[in-house]
Structure prediction request, 217 residues.
Amino acid sequence: MRLFLSSYRFGKHEDRFAALVGTPGPVAVIPNACDAWPAAWQGAITSDLKPLRDRGFRPDVVDLREFTGREAELERALTRFPLIWVRGGNTFVLRARFALSGADLVLPRLLAADAVAYAGYSAGACLLTPDLRGIEAVDDPGEVPPACGIEARWDGLGVVDHRIVPHVGSPGTDPDGACDRIADRYRAEGVAHWALTDDDAVVVDGDRVEVLVTPGS
Prediction:
């Protein structure tokens, strides 16, 4: 299993991202965390495609809305890619799209077989955790029914055993410090978690888990 989980894109650890995923090639970009924001959807995609292309990757958008109820077809589509890139947005909307398309079953199978590497930031990282409770302080579960037609789910995929709090100490992406308060709550409740600034990342490579914290961040 190969995972690169960050608060914001590559953070300050692009070298570790490159080492994990290998030679740049095709990459499936999943943008569905932005499904509740149709006016911003295309711009959000473009903002991720450019940095990937600049690094030699060949990104293709895989829109999970096109695979609703089509789990087998989604699995065939994703196996064409050595890397899956899942961007930020609303974690609850992203979780709903994974459930509706069967991606919540497909992805763990592909990861367990080491058929793909996975890079996810913000919502794309939080998705893989055991539980999404607490994230409602920054992501509105009420956006799920109008965007996806189902109720919000509070379980993550459970691929990693810690919750993730992105954007800690990162005024550019969390100006009112809500993510810091989530991390404080988790600490007070004894919830295992990784609190990541926008410079930090978690790398999982096989059985090895490494939290990459940038000094001074």
Notes: The first strand starts at residue 2 and ends at 6.
